[in-house]
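COMPLEX REQUEST
Ligand: zinc ion
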Amino acid sequence: MSIDVTARACLTCGTDKPHRPSLGGRLRRCLGCGLGWTVPDPAEPSARYDLDYFTGGGYEDYFLAAPRRFEAGRRLRWLSSVVGPSVLVEAGCAGGYFLEAAQGAGFTVTGVEVSRAAAGFAVDRLGMPVRQGYFEQVAPSLRADVVCAFHVLEHVDDPRVFLRAARGVLSPGGWLALEVPNIASAAADRLGHDWPAVAPEYHRWHFTPETLTRMLLDAGFQVVSHDTVFSRFYWKPLPRLRQARNLLVADWVACGSPRMRHPHLGDLLRVFARRADGRTPR
Ligand SMILES: [Zn+2]
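STATUS: Structure written out below.
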């Protein structure tokens, strides 16, 4: 399912102009719209989304209860600002902590997770209903009022296929809640190839607020709102104090405020979109 990104038009704007090396050469950025993608490294096979994903490579903390429940609570509060308890599907639910929080708030939840280890954890340890597999393949058998995907779109083979699958799951007017790394962030600008979210072995696509909005429109969604948060937004207060002092200073300098949210300069881009009916997705 791999894509030769050097031989095709930009996924977002369709231009076939040459693309600009970025962030130390590990990425290319479209000159037309700014969509970024990872240059495949022939020495490193990219098929990392196997059954054991989440059991190595620094992703072990996806199973730690305290930080994950804190993060899940933040995300749930954000989601609950636009939609009440209803039927929810989370694509890429990892260990299931967000599902647990949403179920606790009255949502009827289903998770989809490619990693057998993570899906097993969610089912066995948290008692969450999770289907193990690729969301794009499981989606036709699902129906929901809300689809959530936190840090998933940057990993998938083709984000347009993923978004169309999400649209197919949703009822008319249903909500899509996404979060991805923000390549237009102050940190990406400041850190260059040291920006942690470059992660070339995992992250294939890099979005700005504009490119993600454009891709969502093309996939048959109406973007209702977007904003960004800084990484420390998801850290519990004590670790935030201990570890994030340098980040706080750098972010404060970049955006002129100690706040953890910003319209476009934060590390993580969050988008609410709704299934738009009356127009056919491209
Ligand atoms: Zn483009």
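REMARKS: DSSP finds nine helices and twelve strands in the chain. The two ends are 20 Å apart (CA to CA).
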